[in-house]
Amino acid sequence: LESQTLPYVQQASLWESCRRSGQGGEWSCESLMGYAWGRAAAATYLVGFLLLVICFALAIIAFAIDTLRFNFIRGIGGLLFVAAVFSIMGLVIYPVKFSSEMELTGINMFSWAYGFGWTTAIMEICLGFFFCCLPNYEDQILGNVKPTYFYSSP
């Protein structure tokens, strides 16, 4: 969260909220980890990120080893959906509770980092569908399908 107009009097992250009294004043910061919703938002978003990293590692292993290629691709897709759920929970808890429990002064907006979090969640959902549908085309990907020619001789 950042102040949108001058004087910039408030900024916040997933971990703390900072404010200052005027343009030249010093920032005073308060940790959001003192609030239950702050810990919940951080924990759910970090669990989603950890699951995303695990899915990335599993995907590299699955595509590097021929015998494992399509054995657990759908499992990775399912895990990506779970990661998306955790990320979305964190992305919803934070702004709702922050705006209702913290005193906001001036005009504020959520910065690019919040949009980046939503982009990550959307990509997790799309990749979940991709990994769940990929085994349906296993033969085409591996080249095991006999080509069909639509040519007829006169």
TrEMBL record:
A Gene Ontology term for the protein's cellular component: desmosome
Subcellular localization(s) per the UniProt record: Cell junction, Desmosome; Cell membrane; Cytoplasm
GO BP terms, alphabetized: apoptotic process; cell-cell adhesion
Family annotation (InterPro entries): P53_induced (IPR015664), PMP22/EMP/MP20/Claudin (IPR004031)
Main location: other
Transmembrane annotation, as ranges: 42-65, 72-96, 116-137
Topological type in the membrane: Multi-pass membrane protein
Alphabetically ordered keywords of this record: Apoptosis, Cell adhesion, Cell junction, Cell membrane, Cytoplasm, Membrane, Transmembrane, Transmembrane helix
Domain of life according to the entry: Eukaryota
Family, as annotated: Belongs to the TMEM47 family.
Name under which the protein is recorded: p53 apoptosis effector related to PMP-22
Phylogenetic classification of the source organism: Eukaryota, Metazoa, Chordata, Craniata, Vertebrata
